[in-house]
């Protein structure tokens, strides 16, 4: 029998999965996390279970008695999307259906194409232009189908992630390099082009607050977050430079991102090839309309940009000192 305060998080070692797991724990939930090769037991208030999201029996067993399953697992380094992403989701859907659990998915803008730009609502048409975008569309289609069969679904879409724990994101792999002093900030987009960023703890907070009101959600609920809008492409790099200058005394330079290097290395490096495929999102402004989220919650969780950037750089070890503790 499912307990209303028990949740399984798949992908709890990743950026958004980890943030959601910790914030649910702090909100009083009993949190389980599934991880390959994990030493089973309780650590930092989270119960870790050994298992693979590709193993349907492992997911089913881990989900026993859970009221919510957070599906935040992704292949590392963008590798194996075509072979792994949909089977993992199918396993989660089956477990959610068996337990009567609400299934939560962190969403992206990948599943939208130019016909929906520049302002995206929850109901904007989904005509992607990339392979990962097509997979995202299929993921949401399967979730919507599951919702018609009685499984409640919550999708929270947000812009490019950044936060205190580095992962597969443009902030820690493109703008700066995690674990290294910030001597330069890469300019990824065209001059004057807007871009949307989402601070991971804010996204996690929105999910936690939505789950606290899940009895009022529609069966297939989708919400967009506005995050931090960088209107001309200089706000984020400017915030990074200010934080680094204040903390270290050095002002990083801004240089163009070497897209040519990704093009050259794409045939040999899977991560570079997958990053290059998403370049179109740096060549056109894409912004999310958060009106539905604000109407439902009364506000969007929002950390000031300078605080968010400093926490992110601290957590990445990029300010010349040991990573700072970051509160949820």
Automatic annotation (TrEMBL):
- Domain of life of the organism encoding this protein: Bacteria
What Pfam families does its record include?
Epimerase
NAD-dependent epimerase/dehydratase domain mapped to chain residues: 7-218
Gene3D superfamilies the UniProt entry points to: NAD(P)-binding Rossmann-like Domain
- The signal peptide here is none
The name this protein carries in UniProt is NAD-dependent epimerase/dehydratase family protein
Give the classification, highest ranks: Bacteria, Pseudomonadati, Pseudomonadota, Betaproteobacteria, Burkholderiales
């Amino acid at each position: 029998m499912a307990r209303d305060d028990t949740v399984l998080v798949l992908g709890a070692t990743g950026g958004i999965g980890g943030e959601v797991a910790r914030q649910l724990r702090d909100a009083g939930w009993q949190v389980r996390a599934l991880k390959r090769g994990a030493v089973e037991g309780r650590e930092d208030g989270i119960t870790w279970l050994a298992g693979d999201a590709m193993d349907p029996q492992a997911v089913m067993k881990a989900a026993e008695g859970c009221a919510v399953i957070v599906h935040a697992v992704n292949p590392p380094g963008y590798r194996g999307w075509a072979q792994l992403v949909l089977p993992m989701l199918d396993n989660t859907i089956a477990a959610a259906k068996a337990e009567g659990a609400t299934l939560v998915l962190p969403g992206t803008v990948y599943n939208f194409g130019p016909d929906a730009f520049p302002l995206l609502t929850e109901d904007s048409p989904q005509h992607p232009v990339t392979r990962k975008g097509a997979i995202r569309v299929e993921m949401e289609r399967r979730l919507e189908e599951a919702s018609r069969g009685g499984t409640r679904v919550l999708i929270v879409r947000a812009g490019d992630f950044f936060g205190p724990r580095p992962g597969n994101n443009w902030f820690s792999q493109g703008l700066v390099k995690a674990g290294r002093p910030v001597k330069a900030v890469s300019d990824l987009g065209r001059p004057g082009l807007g871009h949307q960023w989402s601070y991971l703890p804010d996204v996690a907070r929105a999910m936690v607050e939505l789950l606290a009101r899940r009895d009022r959600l529609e069966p297939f609920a989708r919400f967009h977050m506005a995050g931090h809008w960088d209107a001309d492409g200089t706000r984020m790099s400017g915030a990074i430079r200010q934080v680094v200058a204040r903390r270290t005394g050095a002002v990083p330079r801004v240089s163009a991102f070497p897209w040519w290097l990704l093009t050259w290395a794409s045939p040999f490096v899977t991560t570079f090839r997958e990053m290059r495929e998403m370049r179109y999102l740096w060549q056109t402004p894409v912004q999310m309309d958060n009106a539905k989220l604000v109407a439902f919650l009364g506000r969007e969780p929002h950390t000031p940009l300078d605080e968010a950037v400093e926490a992110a750089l601290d957590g990445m070890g990029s300010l010349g000192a040991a990573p700072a503790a970051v509160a949820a």
